[in-house]
Design goal:
With 148 residues, the protein is α+β, with helices and mostly antiparallel strands. Bound molecules: ribavirin triphosphate and magnesium ion (MG). One of its GO terms (cellular component) is cytoplasm.
Length: 148
């Protein structure tokens, strides 16, 4: 089943939105495969946003995700990557649809609450950055048969 990497960014943790956002992914029908609270260091932050190196928002974005602990998660399910991006909403909260996470809780592109992989290839890269293989757990769950 397709996996995606989701990160609850520092503002989500500081504003007490962790439970509410996790609930959105759970209720959508995704299955949690990995989760931890971590303090991102500079090396990890720069690796995460490597594709944006050289852009004006690179350094502020790196500094932002190091500014407080974040919740790193792996969720799996049918079309997990695209489906999670839809739940999150557009990068700029002002353009995000009203019911999306960024549409509901975000105001500024530089503090946009949540990260989600933009492709299956990115998901594989990001999961490997944040998790050791043994930290991703494949387990049977009640309801699996209703969601595949
Ligand atoms: P993310 O990687 O965080 O899930 O966001 P995304 O795919 O929707 O957007 P992306 O283009 O990958 O940008 C990564 C993060 O950089 C910050 N950003 N700031 N000031 C700006 O114009 C600007 N553009 C991007 C955002 O925090 C964005 O989430
Ligand atoms: Mg991105």
């Amino acid at each position: 089943m397709e996996k995606t990497f989701i990160m609850l960014k520092p503002d989500a943790v500081q504003r007490g939105l962790v439970g509410e956002i996790i609930e959105r992914f759970e209720k959508k029908g995704f299955k949690l495969a990995g989760m931890k609270l971590i303090q991102v260091d500079r090396a990890l932050a720069e690796a995460h946003y490597a594709e944006h190196r050289g852009k004006g928002f690179f350094e502020p974005t790196v500094t932002y995700i190091m500014s407080s602990p974040v919740v790193a998660m792996v969720w799996q399910g049918k079309n997990a990557v695209a489906s999670a991006r839809q739940i999150m909403g557009s990068t700029k909260p002002v353009e995000a649809s009203p019911g999306s996470i960024r549409g509901m809780y975000g105001l500024d592109v530089s503090r946009n609450i949540v990260h989600g992989s933009d492709s299956v290839t990115s998901a594989e890269r990001e999961i490997a950055l944040y998790f050791k293989p043994g930290e991703i757990i494949d387990y049977p769950k009640v309801g699996d048969e209703w969601l595949s």
